[in-house]
Specification:
The chain is α+β, with helices and mostly antiparallel strands and 101 residues long. It is 35% helix and 9% strand. It has a two-stranded antiparallel sheet. Strands 3-4 form a two-stranded parallel ribbon. The longest helix has 15 residues.
Length: 101
Amino acid sequence: PHWAAGGAPAQRGGPPQRPLPLSRPPSEYLKRIWVDTASPSPAALAANLAVFGTSRMLLGTDSPPLAGIESPVLAAIDALPIDDDERKAVLGGNAQQLFRL
């Protein structure tokens, strides 16, 4: 609602600031987002797969502090409708590329 007046919220009592124009369509910015597999929820992983594809998914478990979550996460990745090369990318290949390992 604070954007409804046509600009960003006022800064320290000043006039509202206009947002910077996007140089590309919003959908183009999705290519800059990486997601992880920390949630073993099949619905969440399927949504990430549909929106971002396997090339933007990284293995994540939140372990520690949630020790023992590795197996459900790996099982959820195994259940995705992806081929072996895509699975290898999610399990480590994408991280190697992203972090230049």
